[in-house]
Fold each of these.
Amino acid sequence: MRKFRIMSALCALTSAGVFAAHVQAQEVDHAKADAEFAKFRAEMEDSNPAELFELKGEELWKAKRGPNNVSLAESCDLGLGVGKLDGAYVLMPRYFKDADAVMDAERRVVWCMTEKQGFKFDDIAKKPFASGNYTPEITSLVTYVAGHSRNKQFAVNLKDPKVREIYETGKEIANYRAGPYDFSCNTCHGSDGKRIRMQNLPNIGSKEGATKSVMGWPGYRMTGGVMLTHQWRMNDCFRQQRFPEPKYASDTITALLTYMTANANGVMYKGPGIKR
Amino acid sequence: MTKKIILATLVAVPFMAAALPAQADGAYRAKAVAMIQKDFKPRGQASLDRLAEDGVQAICNRTGNNPPAEIAKMLEADQMAAVVYPADGQLMGDWKKGEKLAQSGKGFTWKDKPGLPVGGNCYNCHQISPKEQAYGTVGPSLLHFGKLRGNTAETQKYVYSKIYNAKAHNLCSEMPRFGRIEALGTNQIKDLVALLLDPESPVNK
Amino acid sequence: MADPMKIRAQLKGDEAVIRVLMSHPMETGQRKDGDGKTIPAHFIQSITVAVNGKTVVSGQTGGSVSRNPVFGFKLKGAKAGDKVAVSWIDNKGDKRTDETTVA
């Protein structure tokens, strides 16, 4: 028997905090700082707490639940057939005939939960994002679904006219300036190489920027230790844009996710990620 | 004054629509606007009226932020005419207060408490004092601004009106109209002018 | 009941690299909620690792460890098929054991 020391991963967690505190001290080499975090992220990739949520999601996916007492595994079609998970995430958003709508992954799982399992949409939408110790079931489910598209290429089908229409609409939503500060998505995310404070701002209209925007979602955010989805990211962007709150799983969010994800078509998805 | 601006834009919007060639993405823009109108809910201070475009936003949204020069000029003049200067004519405040204000990015989100004061949000987008390295790059660097431009009455007036309403200088500027929307008061804007122009400010050291 | 751990045990030469992800809030007992009330401490306080039933690691942890913590160990003389069991107990008496096989 021997005592142990908490190993590298935890030390790395601490050093990320130290790194942030030093930012103000002297001239910062921004490229170097980014490279350091990339190294840390690579180190953390096979110890990402996101996997805990995949496990939880698997349990939820397979369990018979809801008023109809059916499992998602035996009722939910993510586009490749009922219960088929492998590669489904990177093909969404896509058009679903049964719902007559283009849906992103999170919205589709919500649809299955309401239509197949009999849950009420309003109950799911009441608190749809993680905070503190609370992680909604939908977040774990989406993380599980996303985990089944690791190392698969994004391939949103823009040849489908319904998807194309949502894509073009999303592109216009990204352009729309309003609110007290006259901000649109593109005020921050419409050109290359910009930053807010130390935060790099990907240009969602470019392949490189769109890749940065879709990669790593759903993501485990170390600040606060919460698992968050891409729907959450859109929600929080609108907050910072000084807009009212977008309704959960709405067309507007699907449209933006379609625009971004399709712009990253052909890029290999690395699975649920880890974020600062 | 506000009435005049609204009137001007009401005239301008249909004019624009008529003047522009039919664009392929016009239909999608209409769809986007309709989608936005139905997909949001009010939260905290962020009410649904924020989704509506005002005149300037409408023109910029419809022209890819690149309106025809004569329309831009007309609307810029409208915005400029609405700039309120301090009663005593003094445009320079306290750069130390300005620095504090420039650091804060608070205000106007659905999580923020409604009301004033809100932050200047300056470092979010601009390099300003050499002591602050965590600055954004959405806007140009303002390092050594006063040293380069001089602290003349002319420059003071330019900086004051730019912060008060950036759209008075460049109609589709990405910078918010801090004075116009009453996010910043006269005294706060004066403090920011001092931050950029006061020879004692670290910006000019 | 506590959520499952994720355990990986990969053989590299004659060493197995064991990585364990635990699902736990790890509240320090120092933090306050939105109303200013102290959030009660809730953290894992002991961890053991057993290989084929024999305890090889045991240790104490406290509230300074992050939420959903990650632990890593290197096990010398490991071989494929060894059973690795990881257990934790927290300060409220909650516990959890999960198992995996070295591969």
Amino acid sequence: MTGDLVVQFLAQGAQMFMVLLIAPLAVGVVRRVKARLMRRQGAPLLQGYRDLAKLLRKESVVAENASWLFRSAPSLIFALTWVAAALVPSFASGLMFNWAADVVALVALLGAARALLALAGMDVGTSFGGIGSSREMMIATLAEPAMMLIVLTLAIAAGTTRLAGVADFFIAEPLAVRVSLALSLVALIIVALAENARIPVDNPVTHLELTMVHEAMILEYSGRHLALIEAASYLKLVLYLSLLICLFAPFGMAPANAGVGGWAIGLLAWSAKLLAGAALLGVWEVSIAKMRVFRLPDFVGIAFVFGFLAILLAFLTRGALE
Amino acid sequence: MNHAYEISHLLAGVMLVTSFALLYQQRVAAVLNTFAAQSIALALAVAWAAWSQDRPDLFITALIALTLKGIVIPVALHRTVARLGIHREVEKVVGVGVALMVGLALTGLAQALLFKVTHGTASHAREELALALSIILMGFLMMIVRRNAVTQIVGFMSMENGLILAATGARGMPLVVEVSVAFSVLIALFVFAVFVFRIRERFDTIDIEALDRMRGDRR
Amino acid sequence: MIHAYQVVVVAPYVAALVLLVIPGYRLGAITNVVASALTFAAGLWLVVSERVVSDYAIVDEFNIVFIAINTLVGFTTALFSASYIGHEIETGRLTPTLLRFYHAMFQAMMGSMNLALIANNIGLMWVGLELATLITVVMVGLYRTPQAIEAAWKYFILASVGISLAFFGTILIYLAGQPALGEGVPAMTWNLLQAAASRMDPAILDLAFIFLLIGYGTKVGLAPLHAWLPDAHAEGPTPISAVLSGLLLNVALYALLRFKMVVAGQPAALDPGPIMIVMGLVSLIFAAFMLYQRRDIKRLFAYSSIEHMGLMVFAFGMGGPLANFAGLLHMTMHSLTKSGIFFAVGHIAQAKGSQRIADIKGLSVTHPRLAVAFALAVFAISGLPPFGVFTSEFLILTTTFAREPWLALLPAFGLLIGFGALLMRLQDTIFGEPVGPAHRVDASSVPLVLHLLLVLTAGIYLPPVLVAWFQRAAELLG
């Protein structure tokens, strides 16, 4: 049994490094697709890795009045996000730590990372950092409750808040046309866009002071600090893509006792879906305009409304089924 | 869990979502398009009910919903808006956020009301009714929180959509009701057409606010 | 064989079609009167002929009262309208085309109201009532002044909310009746629903009644859903105000009472009585206070209509043979008196060229006979003896006093408040220095005198036949 345990352990470790490895590639795909659709050449797919390597080599410039928070935040943010990303079931549902992959825990980890980032943004005391933090919090006040509502909807449907359990439930019950699930899908996509600072909530490629949110907060960072924060944001993208895949397109995912062969298939399916998702995101970003900041609460509010509706309908459906 | 129920539930859910979208929209043109989408969803829902409950008479209702409310009325209103040069922004009494929150509360109310009260009836009919009541209340809400005459028209017709959905949800309700619904829509349209025309004639605007300046007693 | 109830419904619709093609407004007005007379005759025939219950039509002791009032006041209003409406063309407020439209719509409205009253199907009744409402919306906006359009718009918005809620309530009643009566038409038929009420789910009936009360209550003009009523009365043509107050409110009340009968058949469902008592009292007292601030004479009497509808709803909410009898009698008396008052107001508006109370001073000097008739009509509506309204109000108060002495204080209080306001306004209009122009009045005074005579007669002597008839209707109400 020890050998089995080792294999299990290795599989979990593989997932953990898998997400870290694939994250810059996923971002590379998004950028490449966008560039191509705009008829530009675009950076090579591996540019993300090069950026990180370059930043890690560079010196970190820290403002004079920065506190310990400013310096320690990047590592903490990176660690929290990495753990969160590694918890989402990617290629197999029955991994060793799947009991820890609870959606509520996930929301909590991301919330902590976000709070740190906002604090770090305000730490140096520049106006941009403050603006970015306040905007981020404005979005978060709507996005987080929406996320919790989505989580609850799924929990009601599947009877558990464990992601692996939810994924198993969706694999077992094929093609259930459920309004509440469709609503939570839309809501989750909106939350994902907002959380990853994607168009129409934020534009990750510009530094326009009127509208930037995420970029404003990290404006003071450089060198390895910036590398960690960038890596964390890449990981977050992978996290949300895997979450969407795991919940709403779990086909191909290896069941609990699949063995190495099953895992290989699951891994392939997951990578393909992830990169396809990244490509779709690129198409989406090209085809839609950035929103005015004042309109953001309305947009993220949709996620909240949909989440709320979803949970209402979930209750209703459950009543009807009894 | 049968398909008939799943699909009708899905379509009713889509209608409810469009109800929220109606409150969310900022532009009159977008409101009209959303309304058209809702009517088409209604037509599909009614057609599905006709097919799954084996009630061919409902196809007529579906057809009326599709042609009249899905196509003719939105197009006519688009043209009215364009011809009269009305403000293309939706004029609001309360903001989008508040409206959506109230909408959510109304939806919750509708669910709670029907859920508690109608425990005896078939669960499917009850769910459909709960969704329909939500749509009705949302249409009502839209008439209150949107100021412009065209958006109020849309609110009214969205309310009618909810009524038709409710009538379809009640199994075996005789044709007379469906005809009457379609009929009342026609008359409502006629009335509205007259009004939009006359209000324009008098005020050069179809913003209802302008009317408030002439309250009867304060002449 | 043609039955009278078919004539009552079909004749007005046919007349409406004919009126659409008649070009001259004089001929149109005459046709309108003839058609209304025919309908009235059919109504009378219906009163004496056998009661009917078929799949789609029902004539019983209860709704025959409504039909009789409806056709009678429809006829007298057509008479009044024929002599009145020509003036509107002379002053340029209406064009001949609009007038043709007006006559056709008048008949269509009468037909729709009769349809709502005779239908033995809750869906059909809904259609009739809504048709009548929508037609009155158009009529209210007929003058096309900004005020008229505002009034019509407000009326439309509130009425459409009423339409929707009432329809939803109708669907719920169908759902409640479905398990007991099976799918299809039977679960929407009045007499079957009433008979099967005890087998229906009380919870659904409760919910349905709430929706119906709000939906049809909007049309009855119960506070706080009354906002459309004063505007609609003030801005439409005067004959339409008379029909609105005298008839359409009754038809809505009829719908409410029918549903009350169904819900009352299920003892486990909520008791409609107390809700109706509260809503009636709120409307009564609220409207009585509102009477003091009115500056427009039609608006004044519109609020008075809210007051009286409140009193009727209160009486029917009390229930029992005596209160129901009193409620029905009050409804009849109110219809006759209030439409009479609007006829008088039409005369006054023609004489003075204004509806503002401030412009109508000194009527007794310029138009003495009109002043006397108007004063008598206002005395009648404020419940002074020997008019019929006094009898019915007295009955309502005494029967309430016999059962719930404390409760009787509230309607009595409201009526006294209203009484004071009406007399104050009456004084303003009749006495004082005449102001403004004093035109000749062309409109016929026959309908006004006829109504006043009827109300006076009823106040002095109620024929036993009539009493017996109303008693049977009151018993049906339970």
Amino acid sequence: MIEVRTLSKFYGKKSVVEDVTVTIQPGKITSFIGPNGAGKSTLLSMVSRLLDADSGEVLIDKSDVRKLKSQDFAKRVSILKQSNYMNVRLTIRELVSFGRFPYSKGHLTEEDERIVEQSLEYMHLTEMQDSFLDELSGGQRQRAFIAMVIAQDTDYILLDEPLNNLDMKHSVQIMKILRRLVDELGKTVVIVLHDINFASVYSDRIVAMKDGRVVRDGPTEEIIQSEALSEIYDMDIPIREMDNCRICVYFNS
Amino acid sequence: MKKRYLFLALLALSGVSLFVGVSSISPMDLLDVQSEETQIFLISRVPRLVAILLAGAGMSIAGLIMQQLSRNKFVSPTTAGTLDATRLGILVSMLLFANASMLEKMAVAFAFALAGTFLFMQILDRIKFKDAIFIPLVGLMFGNILSSVTTFFAYRADVIQNMSAWLQGDFSMIMKGRYELLYISIPILVIAYFYANRFTVAGMGEDFSKNLGLSYRRVVNVGLAIVALITATVVLTVGVIPFLGLIIPNIISIFKGDHLQKTLPHTALLGANFLLVCDILGRVIIYPYEISISLMVGVIGSGIFLFLLFRGKAYA
């Protein structure tokens, strides 16, 4: 369980995240939604220690994240930020092997090799494991990074807009993979999403942010409601139910 | 590009290098320990070879580490002001401590090289527009500013002549007693190898490094210190060798990728090979005179550099 308590972050005098308290439940997909500049990514960065908070605290399984050693933290929480700009020429396998870095510092044991192998297989990358990352499509690269995170073997996986620059097919593929990580491997996935329909279809819980504050927090079916969404986005958003999916039809509203 | 072939080439070229020169020495002459030939061999030829190998490997590794840490394929000691900062350091040590020993000069040059490189990395952090070509241009400008400061004070103190000795890399002055400083780069290269995995991770960015539990700042600082130390020793003993740190890592990266633990040995070997070829050519083209190594590397290196730029693939 990740507990965020009265967390704030200021840039100069402007608050980006203000007094946020939210609990992320284990074994679920929690999506953060909200308009641009709501502070979602900043919050995720503070939870994963990429950014220092100005006040408040983050507890992971009851322990303060600031008190954990970086190595131990890296074995419990992983974060993927938008990484498609990366131009380091590594093969998929080399990248995935670095997921074992917190454990082995790059000198892989047999156990590490086995886990790397499994992660590649899980993401269907075994056949192309020797391709260089800069030769891959956006979707393949994103899968390689997720395979690395799987090899890192953390209970908590945080992703900052993983669907950016992906086409529809690959977006669906990535979301299905995240769902499997939760359902099959018991991971806890926290994800910042722009597309509320992906959030609606794939997440268990949704946290909605606006102007640095949490405005709504609850199970998906409670948040994907016209009344709640109009508060979050200042838009009238009708909802249609199809094949057990609640779809937000905001395109002509 | 197999390590084995690079190593065999290095052995062959080393052999050639040892027996090319103004005074002809044949392997048979070495059987007589007292002969003049053996003396020349030990005082001039062997030190020259060792200096070439260490400088070639060292500058290539320095370039590789800089490219990795700055995440830009066109950054190297030549294009980031490191060489210019080192020369400024040598000038300062000459002006402030008239009778500075080699080690004192070394310390000052190292401090300046480190400060210069660090400053460049700070500038890099503040640039929002991270274009592959724009960043080395900033580095070149930064280097030119340092260089003009050096020239100004060197002119005032009447040591221009003296300084130009460090501007032009030259192996012809290398002999016993004048190159031993370069041995410092051996343990430094070993340390670089131990840090190889950390450099690779750091090369994927600060957030990425933190995710894997790596203390990014410390790794970057170690890397910059290694670059500064290697550059300072090479400039002090041999002089400025341009382009080497730029092209060698790029060639290896194209064939072998950027996994430093795997590519460090290749980069060091290719760098030493390349410098040996340049040196041998420089010694035979206008025999019995010599073309300085920085001119040779400059001409061949800029040709290869242009080729890399025009390769079309937006790779860097």
Amino acid sequence: MMRQRFHIDFIGKAKIFFCISLGIMLVSLILNLVCMPALVDIQFTGGTIIKYNYGGEPAHKNIEKIVNETLKGIDALKNEKVDFSYSENLAAGADDSAKHIVALQFTGNKAVDISHKQAITDALQKGYPKNDFAEESSTAVDASKGANFFLKCIIAVAMAAVIMILYVALRFRKIGGLSAGVMAVVALIHDLIIVYFVFVLFRMPLNDNFIAVVLMILGYSLNDTIVIYDRVRENRRKSGPKVTTAELVNNSVNQCFTRTICTSITTIIAIGSVLVVSLIYGISSIISFALPMMIGLVSGSYSSICIACPLWVMWKNHSDKKKAEKKNNGGSTVKKASKKKAKAAKADTTKKESVSE
Amino acid sequence: MKKIGKPVFFIVFVLIAALAYTSIFGIYGENGDFDVTYIKGLSDIRWGIDINGGVEAVFAPADGIDADETQMEDVKGILDSRLVGQNITDYEVYPDYEHDRITIRFPWKSDEKDYDPDAAIAELASTSELTFKGGTDSSGEVLLSGKDVKRAYASYQQTNNSSSYEYVVGLEFNDEGREKFKQATASYTGKQISIWMDDELLSAPSVSGTIDSGSAVITGSFTSKTATALANKINAGALPFKLTVESYGTISPSLGSNALQAMGIASVVALALICAFMLIIYRLPGLIAFIALIGQLSISIAAVSGYFPLFPSFTMTIPGIAGLILSIGMGVDANIITAERIKDELWTGKTLDGCIRNGTKGSFTAIFDGNVTVIIVAVILILVFGPANILSSLFGVSTTGLIYAFGYTLLVGVISNFIMGVAASRLMLRSISGYKLLKNKRLYGGAKS
């Protein structure tokens, strides 16, 4: 009796997968460039923070509404996305009518005109005549810190990538680990790009959450890829060098497929719970963490199966061919290739029955 | 392979249950009037600024002084000890050497009555240089400074001219200070000298004669609190220059307890759904995976709450909690890999014991290699963004709490996964399969036998 398994030809359909991934990236890139520039948190871009003080406790949501409507009427600030943060003045002697502070954070280097500030003040005063809205301060925030931070993150990720490639190369040397490691990292880059576009398309500013999601997906996607490589390593040991790389990898991916699906499901259940609950509670900062994470997880599983493995097979085939060419000085490569093909066809017919290990 | 005894399952189960209970509820006791915490539970976790709110201030050297790196390092060290002196241990100090800025953040709740962040920040910014000057004028000759003081302490003593008691700050000089103080008192005998903290006159005693005891006492209208504060200030040392407060404000707990409650609900929902899923798909190994998952989560909570005295409690932020919930989902991965392997084996018609043995053996390398790569990521994050700061030569000394915390929880997650998802799960599985009643292969995902 044989266990029911998946028989999906992941390697053969590689071109379709590449097209899907590239297509999504291309469309996102065009949207990104044409009408949806990436929003970056003020801590990375710098910008202007204008603080208004007021007394009493008007609802925060209404303040945001008034400000956003006012901005829409100003041409220069029409497309600005403003972050709001609320605080309380701690300075001694602040009287009650100026105790509360709402800070509007404008990202980017655009200066906010005095007349525009006045327009916002007027609108707020009109909306809340009793709360004494007044502009308290307007400060430009430096961005230099942010650029440094991003660079540091990139270097950290690059360091991790290099060490991981070395580790994979060492542990999987029997199946040509260096190329496997490189392809795993290619899949990671694929996931990072997808996560980036999720932030862009859902209009979420790139901030600490972005870094956290990217790092999490990094670990997850890599773990997924390694589990498949482990199967490949094991199957290669069992089957010997007769089986073609494509055949071998395809079998291994299919054998791991249930596990990939199940782990994805449990992980998505976990982060999905966070997403649903924060949607109900309306906690936007967690939504901007959970949503890209969820899409990133799907991308992470997908890229392991549909990007890393097919790419690695292509690489292997290419380098094998080159090796063969070198060995046989060109003449017998055709023969060898056709032999390989015949073997592959034979393996293909036996594939459907042979599953047990 | 050695056979695992039947009771092992229950021993492991009870250990996990005990760990889960204590890590959530903690163990508290009473010692007379004091509440004593023996083991810290969920309620002892320090919540980050995003949940509790806090204060942030940015300091810069006053008067446009261009500080060099060692000076900024000194400033950071002095601010560190001042904050600790004020009993604030949960703070962040971020120096930026290139731009001579220091940012300080500490959690603070607006309903805290007994703590005044306004005064705290003003005090942090002050140079706090102690000086002894000749005469009572602030421009008088500087006789001694805080550098000559070995130790300052608050003390309670009888006043000179009456029987009442007062709080004072006692000073012990170092050798150089002792010599200087001896000379100063010799030359100012019969005259007044004054003791200053920055521009504030603390006291101006008259010198009655040469003092060579190597100690002095600052009197003034101190209370117990102000005397202690002054002593702490002197002990922390003086800043090389005065700081100005560039910006200062409260940070509202933007997310608040609302968010904390939401995360609590989310984690319970996630746990319940994953439990159901694992039971339906993997049956008995699914149940064991769930028990192991509870153990894994307990270790993660213990690692942030300060359960183990060796690891100090960690500040938990909302992304940190979300990451923890995510680790619930990823935590069963090792069990899924193993259970799938066992299923594979069962279809080959081997005995159940053989299948479990081969399944656990065959799945180990995948779990190991997968987790080691995650450990690589976690360790690099901790080294780069934590106190170790291995890239400081490139980017300056600035730690990033969020990413450091993320790396820490990730590392804890992987290690507890090895303990629970691999070791404990295997012990439980091999032990429980010893029961005749549970020998049915269907319980492990095999076909009807």
